[in-house]
Amino acid sequence: MEGSHAIIAKIIFIDDSILYIRDFLFLNGERKYSYHWQNKNNDLLIRWDNSPHHFHIKTFSHHKHIKDNVVESKEIDVRSILKHINNQINKHKKNE
């Protein structure tokens, strides 16, 4: 769509985990996104999205899935999500 913006990407990190990015900004200003981070065994680590189906979450519609839990999310853009992942990878490397 002309005038709309989309980011669709796959990032493979140094620990072989993968982040799948789908972030769309539509002409009407609506934004839909999903950032799916999984380990090298394809197990979900965290998925951030703004699908409007978790009304009880304080940061509705922004939320994240961590295993079977859905929790608030303040990470709602590529920069903050990459920072979070970087911190997690570095923390894990220090614990090895």
Structural commentary:
This protein is α+β, with helices and mostly antiparallel strands. The chain has one domain (5-94). Helices cover 18% and strands 40% of the residues. It has one helix and six strands; from the N terminus they run E-E-E-E-E-E-H. It has one helix at 78-94, and strands at 5-12, 18-25, 31-38, 44-49, 63-66, 69-72. The mean pLDDT is 93.
**Percentage of residues in strands:** 35-45%
Share of helix, binned: 10-25%
Strands in their spatial order, largest beta sheet: 1-2-3-4-5-6
Q: Please tell me the total number of domains.
A: 1
**Straight-line N-to-C gap:** 47 Å
Order of helices and strands: EEEEEEH
Model regions low in confidence, pLDDT < 50 over at least 5 residues: none
Rg (C-alpha, Å): 14 Å
Helix-strand makeup class: alpha+beta
Beta-strand segment tally: 6
The average pLDDT is 93
The helix tally amounts to 1
Shape: globular
Task: Spell out the key features of this protein.
single chain; about 100 residues; alpha+beta; six-stranded antiparallel β-sheet; 1 helix; about 20% helix
Write the layout of secondary structure elements.
Blueprint: E1 5-12, E2 18-25, E3 31-38, E4 44-49, E5 63-66, E6 69-72, H1 78-94
Antiparallel strand pairs: 1-2, 2-3, 3-4, 4-5, 5-6
Brief sketch in words of this structure:
With 96 residues, the protein is an alpha+beta fold.
